[in-house]
Amino acid sequence: MAQRVLTLMVLHTSCPPPRFPGSLRRGLLLLLLTATSAFAGEKVVLHAGWYPSAQLAGIFVALDRGFYRDAGLDVQIEPFAFGLNSPARIDADPSICALGTIEGYVFLQKRNAGVDLQALAAMLQESPAGFMSLASTHIKSARDFAGHRVGMHHYAEPIYAWFVQRAGLAPDAASMTVVQDDVTLLTRGELDVMQGYATEEFVRLQALCGNRAEFMSFASLGFPSYSEILYTTATQVDRHATALHTFLAATRRGWAEAFAHPEQTVDILAHHLGTNADPAHLARALTALQPYVCPGGQPAMAPMTAEKWRTLQEAGTGIGLVHGTEPVEKFLRNW
Predict the structure, then answer these.
(1) Mind listing the domains of the chain with CATH numbers?
(2) CA 305 – CA 310 distance, rounded (Å)
């Protein structure tokens, strides 16, 4: 139920304002206070781990459909910004319930640095990160990088080097260059293969090339990872367990609603993404996202497995992203 706001206005005319009996004045004052404070739920702050996109569809839908409000929560989203330490911001005021979203290997890096983070649930059961190419290049594995021009995001260079090493290739077997997200580098023939996300860049490539566009996931190359993990700190778990459980339940409801009513979801996403939003792209991105959120038709935010976390720890250690492993039970909550 939408929050009601009652506004009392006094008209500035030559006539004096109407006078009401004392009991009626008290009644109007009570109505005003009740209406303006009709919703005073527990504040929950979500620190987004990336820029707004379809990957936050479940959260945006839960906001717009009032699922958080219905559950007694007043949810505020803090936008992502490079250079901000989200775990530190989460604990900046322990009296306020706060959590964030994060990638699997980044979560492990923070743990490695001594921050006692807790993984509550994963909105994406697999990272949509991978390699895009055109069918004409015949790139089906990392070994096929040999002799080709490969575009990588700067932060993923160590992961690329690991893939090349695992494929038994020499470091200079392929020509690697750092790129951002311009998929026309592939269509113009300036690159043969390029890092991207199945739910974003690859969607744009498919719009340009149709079924000539191909995708090879990081997971298929030995680097599985949960993505858009909802996490918080141990301090937050101790202080705000009930609110966190409630937030997760409402978010699951948001994801179910997002996929049940995709057209309305696209409208909601476009509203939150602003004037640069492309509804056609958002519709395709939402479709591409569903297998990552609900693989095999399972419900959204299904339980994570200790085995997959251990595999990620081992891969991250081999790449050099993290140093050593720890018992998964120290951080895996599965709420």
Answers:
(1) 42-127+225-330 (3.40.190.10), 129-221 (3.40.190.10)
(2) 9
